[in-house]
User: Which sequence fits this backbone?
């Protein structure tokens, strides 16, 4: 054996020749996405559009298509998703994560403006009749995935509008109704039969549905506000968070008293508080833990504070005090943080001392939500079982979304899609897609390779304007220039972005250009010409090239 | 001194060039401090101090003359030599190469002129200035060798003045 | 970096700082099968700079060190050169000016483009779109690798010297070990050097002896870079000029020095004359021609080193002559100075050739050939290494 191969083998030294192998290690953003979106892929299409020979418009349309493949709501999620994709972005440590969420929004808006339709998959082969209960993101995602595969899908929604909590929970200043409805209309345009104002279990029975359809999907969300469980809760002047937001979102012209107290620390609480502020009230939000533990999206909390919502941390309600008109205060107990509970957050424990009063004419209890099984009680136990058996106790009943546990919209969309993919495989007798491999994310990225470029700032409208126009969107969509600049910031972790360094500096000629380039596919390896120096691996900024076992 | 040191390292007091020796190279100070000393019959006079980046001994590149002063290390110092032959060959190929040297030399002449002026202001009787200068430079032009030592003597006198 | 380049830079006011120079070198050791001899610098000072071009060998921690290329780039930047860290992928033409495409699709056109991409990138491999008359230089594949030994071990086994191996191995021209900080660089020049050549070299006892315990350690990294050995056709065009290795370069030795000189010649042309092909022809081409002529003579010089490599009696003669000269510390004589300049690239090959045709040189070599081989017959070896 050659001494170079063994590096003076007689001395027992290790191998010196290094040959590259190409491997698309998953990117942290892609792995971090709750919706299972291939973030790196669509970012790559935009960032690499020149190398791919695409015009800007072609690139945007293709990128949007990649998003829409798993998520038919880019403009919506581009506004409301708490974007766990960005939390794990490798660029964070350099000069801020890529503003993936804002970019998704840009593409979503762009597609709405240009009326880009969702498309059926080529060779769509289905022919089954599918019934979906609930037109929230879970149900609509399920309906979309099956409709584009050629199945006949009917969606039953008890309310006047589709969208579930996205329509009736999230206020317009975060998600304009037209945006959401435009994205829903595209799904309907695929041939989905959306039956509004039909409550399953009341207007139509489950048995009737079972007769009409080959299988059913439940995406009924969690529409009941949980109760506080304190004296004085019953009676006028105390409402659940989603009830309040429902009323706001339906545009009901109800009177909001001047002193409002919101109880809770999640998105519903924050949204309710901000909506109440916009109706002229002075709003105090009570939360029993500290800011650290607040489940609401951090930036939303900041915005609420900026809009004048005051927040009391470490307080828990003990009673609602009432007078002749209605409630006049929430009695609260000062709390402190004790040992961590099963969720890992430190449990609030009362601090000795008497409760004190926080004045309130309207109390909004936004502490949690539960599933509203009204009329669907027979299915409750079946779904409980379904959860443990891949959503299909009898292959005729599937489910997803908040009804399986409170989550975020991206999760509901992903659950709807996974169920649809499994159902389609079952119906067509094909192999169901495997659960995503939880591979380690690409971390071996040469951050220094990329020029410094600060993250695009979110453009926020002034507070005064926001309060004066309650439905005015708080944030603006990125400009096209900022969008493209953000695209350039993507490291393309773990995937070739065609920088050409390997090709340029390989003395053996071990890299052969691929005629029709794609993100991740610019060069093919010609290992027979590899001299084994490993320079390409060292140069590769993305970690796409790594050392392979030397061929014998 | 470190591994990455170029040139030759001299210990404190060691001579790099000796006045009167034949020279066939110039020097570039890499590190440390050197003193330029003129040996006069009535003792040694420090003419100048040299630090990193300074060039000396360049006269012997252009004239076949003996070293005009002694250069010695003040503390440990490191000096790189540049061969006359190598340098002249390069100037042949790349005349602007001489630019850096010309710049250094013109800078020195400027300094010497200033020193000279100060000195004359102190020692000469009040006389029409222009005349005196003309006379002197006229004499200098006639005696090549004398010019250099003349300059050195004036400079050393200035040096003495400073050191006194 | 050759002695002549270090001096040239110093006289222009560019003094390489100690963070850049891994090791100052003052001597080299010539190793042949018949024995080894140490050749000191004529000036007995460290005038050869061992530098790393980039960040140093793979995996080395060099926080306080600065690579030579980075030093130069910073120097350029401090003279208000705008440095754009981007890979150039095409040099074409836009209207009446050359245009560069870089960084995945960005374009910029300039009044003049100087191409200094060397011969180790694909950029000019298949010519240049902007100048069809240009052809890529003829190249040879060489080998370079790094060994981590640590300063102490390097001091003990290699010292402040560069080690040159003139061994009779197939396709090998010569090889060198150069100490640099904690590392030793192995350079192998020859005719299409490949694994086999390197293997044979590393197996040679003369090489192994230079490593602690006679063991060749694991390589930190290696590669097979190309050398410019034949000039390109027409290294200039309107608004385009090729400098350094992708243009005309010195054969085998002092490539960096020659790149520097050619770059200055091109810059002088541009600064004092212009950027047209005519200007380059009148003012840049002559420098290219001088270099090419010297390279022609270089081939003669290297024919004789090949001869030394092949003929054992000749090796004995050379070894004896050099050892004798080196024993006399005051003088840096015929063979010493010729070998010094051949292996360090400190003087034009023409000078080397002239000196080796000196009657004194020939007389001395003849005498040493006789004496050296007579000695060898008696079983004596000269100047064996430490
Ligand atoms: C105020 C608020 C703010 C939020 N903010 C965010 C945020 O910023 N980002 C984020 O990602 N997530 C947010 N969420 C969570 C997100 O909205 C939910 O996770 C998501 O909407 C769940 O989708 P789903 O389809 O499971 O349920 P839902 O959206 O609740 O939809 C269920 C649908 O089923 C219908 N339905 C129920 N029962 C029947 C029946 N018997 N017959 C017919 N139809 C029926 C309902 O009317 C509803 O339309 C927020 C939630 C709330 C309440
Ligand atoms: C094994 C070996 C040992 C050697 N030893 C010595 C020695 O000891 N002393 C000596 O003086 N010479 C030596 N040489 C020769 C010397 O390395 C070269 O002559 C010298 O490097 C030429 O300099 P250059 O600037 O022309 O090219 P290079 O040094 O090759 O520099 C070219 C530069 O252009 C950049 N570049 C290339 N393509 C692109 C692109 N597409 N876009 C942007 N940038 C690009 C490269 O990254 C590189 O920085 C040696 C050569 C070899 C192969």
Assistant:
């Amino acid at each position: 054996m050659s001494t170079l191969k063994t590096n003076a083998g007689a001395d027992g030294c290790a191998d010196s020749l290094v040959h590259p192998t190409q491997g698309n290690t998953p990117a942290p953003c892609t792995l971090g996405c709750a919706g299972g979106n291939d973030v790196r892929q669509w970012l790559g299409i935009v960032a690499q559009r020149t190398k791919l020979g695409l015009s800007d418009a072609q690139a945007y349309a293709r990128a949007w298509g990649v998003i829409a493949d798993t998520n038919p709501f880019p403009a919506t999620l581009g506004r409301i998703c708490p974007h766990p994709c960005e939390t794990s972005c490798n660029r964070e440590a350099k000069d801020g994560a890529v503003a993936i969420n804002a970019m998704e929004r840009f593409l979503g808006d762009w597609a709405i403006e240009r009326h880009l339709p969702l498309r059926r998959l080529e060779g769509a082969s289905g022919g089954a009749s599918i019934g979906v209960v609930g037109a929230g993101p879970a149900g609509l995602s399920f309906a979309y995935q099956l409709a584009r595969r050629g199945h006949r899908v009917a969606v039953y929604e008890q309310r006047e509008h589709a969208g579930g909590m996205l329509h009736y929970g999230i206020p317009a200043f975060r998600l304009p109704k037209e945006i959401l409805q435009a994205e829903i209309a595209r799904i309907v345009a695929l041939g989905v039969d959306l039956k509004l104002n039909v409550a399953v279990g009341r207007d139509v029975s489950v048995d009737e549905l079972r007769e009409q359809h080959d299988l059913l999907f439940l995406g009924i969300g969690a529409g009941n506000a949980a109760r506080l469980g304190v004296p004085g809760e019953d009676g006028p002047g105390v409402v659940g968070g989603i009830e309040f937001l429902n009323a706001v979102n339906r545009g009901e012209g109800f009177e909001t008293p001047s002193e409002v107290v919101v109880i809770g620390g999640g998105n519903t609480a924050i949204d309710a508080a901000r909506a109440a502020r916009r109706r002229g009230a002075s709003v105090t939000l009570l939360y029993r833990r500290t800011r650290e533990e607040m489940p609401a999206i951090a930036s939303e909390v900041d915005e609420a504070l900026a809009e004048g919502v005051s927040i009391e941390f470490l307080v828990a309600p003990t009673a609602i005090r009432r007078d002749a008109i209605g409630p006049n205060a929430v009695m609260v107990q000062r709390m402190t943080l004790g040992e961590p509970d099963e969720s890992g957050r430190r449990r609030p424990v009362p601090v000795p001392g008497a409760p004190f009063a926080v004045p309130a004419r309207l109390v909004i209890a936004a502490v949690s939500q539960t599933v509203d099984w009204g009329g669907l009680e027979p299915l409750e136990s079946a779904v409980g079982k379904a959860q443990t058996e891949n959503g299909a106790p009898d292959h005729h009943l599937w489910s997803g979304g908040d009804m399986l546990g409170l989550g975020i919209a991206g999760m509901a969309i992903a659950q709807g899609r996974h169920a649809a993919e499994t159902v389609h495989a079952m119906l067509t007798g094909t192999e169901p897609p495997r659960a995503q491999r939880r591979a380690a994310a690409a971390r071996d990225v040469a951050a220094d390779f990329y020029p410094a470029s600060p993250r695009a700032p979110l453009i926020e409208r002034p507070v005064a304007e926001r309060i004066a126009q309650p439905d005015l969107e708080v944030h603006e969509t990125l400009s096209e220039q900022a969008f493209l600049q953000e695209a350039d910031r993507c490291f393309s972790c773990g995937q070739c972005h065609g920088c050409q360094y390997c090709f340029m500096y390989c003395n053996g000629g071990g890299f052969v250009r691929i005629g029709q380039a794609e993100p991740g596919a610019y060069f093919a390896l010609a290992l027979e010409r590899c001299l084994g120096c490993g320079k390409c691996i060292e140069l590769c900024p993305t970690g796409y090239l790594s050392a392979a076992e030397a061929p014998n | 001194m470190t591994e990455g040191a170029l040139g030759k390292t001299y210990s404190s007091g060691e001579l790099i060039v000796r006045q009167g020796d034949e020279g066939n190279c110039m020097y570039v100070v890499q590190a440390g401090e050197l003193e330029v000393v003129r040996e006069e019959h009535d003792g040694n006079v420090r003419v100048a101090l040299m630090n990193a980046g300074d060039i000396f001994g360049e006269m012997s590149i252009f004239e076949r003359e003996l070293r005009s002063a002694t250069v010695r290390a003040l503390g440990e110092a490191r000096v790189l030599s540049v061969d006359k032959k190598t340098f002249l060959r390069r100037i042949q190929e790349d005349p602007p190469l001489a630019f850096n040297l010309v710049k250094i030399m013109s800078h020195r002449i400027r300094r010497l002129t200033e020193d000279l002026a100060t000195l004359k202001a102190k020692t000469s009787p009040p006389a029409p200035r222009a005349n005196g200068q003309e006379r002197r430079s006229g004499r200098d032009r006639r005696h090549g060798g004398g010019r250099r030592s003349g300059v050195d003597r004036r400079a050393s006198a200035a040096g003495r003045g400073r050191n006194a | 970096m050759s002695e002549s380049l270090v001096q040239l830079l110093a006289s222009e006011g560019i003094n390489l700082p100690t963070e850049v120079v891994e090791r100052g070198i003052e001597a080299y050791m010539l190793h042949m099968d018949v024995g080894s001899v140490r050749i000191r610098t004529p000036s007995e000072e460290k005038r050869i700079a061992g530098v790393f071009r980039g960040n140093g060998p793979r995996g080395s921690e060099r926080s306080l060190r600065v690579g030579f290329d980075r030093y130069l780039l910073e120097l350029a930047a401090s003279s208000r050169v705008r440095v754009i860290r981007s890979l150039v992928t095409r040099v074409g033409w836009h209207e009446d000016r050359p245009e560069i495409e870089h960084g995945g699709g960005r374009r910029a056109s300039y009044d003049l483009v100087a191409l200094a991409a060397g011969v180790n990138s694909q950029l000019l491999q298949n010519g240049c779109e902007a100048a069809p008359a240009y052809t890529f230089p003829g190249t040879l594949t060489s080998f370079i690798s790094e060994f981590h030994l640590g300063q102490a071990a390097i001091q003990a086994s290699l010292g402040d010297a560069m080690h040159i191996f003139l061994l009779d191995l197939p396709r090998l021209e010569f090889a060198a070990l150069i100490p640099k900080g904690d590392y030793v660089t192995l350079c192998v020049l020859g005719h299409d050097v490949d694994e086999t050549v390197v293997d044979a070299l590393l197996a040679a006892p003369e090489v192994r002896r230079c490593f602690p315990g006679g063991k060749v350690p694991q390589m930190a990294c290696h590669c097979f870079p190309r050398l410019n050995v034949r000039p390109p056709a027409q290294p200039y065009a309107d608004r385009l000029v090729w400098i350094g290795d992708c243009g005309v370069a010195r054969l085998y030795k002092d490539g960096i020095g020659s790149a520097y000189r050619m770059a200055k010649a091109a810059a002088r042309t541009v600064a004092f004359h212009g950027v047209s092909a005519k200007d380059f022809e009148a003012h840049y081409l002559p420098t290219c021609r001088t270099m090419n002529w010297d390279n022609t003579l270089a081939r003669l010089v290297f024919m004789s080193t090949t001869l030394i490599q092949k003929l054992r009696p000749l090796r004995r003669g050379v070894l004896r002559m050099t050892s004798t000269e080196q024993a006399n510390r005051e003088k840096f004589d015929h063979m010493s100075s010729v070998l010094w300049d051949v292996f360090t690239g400190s003087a034009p090959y023409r000078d080397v050739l002239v000196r080796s045709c000196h009657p004194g040189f020939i007389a001395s070599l003849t005498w040493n050939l006789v004496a050296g081989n007579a000695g060898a017959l008696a079983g004596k070896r000269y100047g064996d290494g430490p």
User: Anything to note?
Assistant: The longest strand of chain A covers residues 327-340. Chain A has four domains: 19-24+496-548, 28-116+445-488, 129-223+371-428, 226-367.
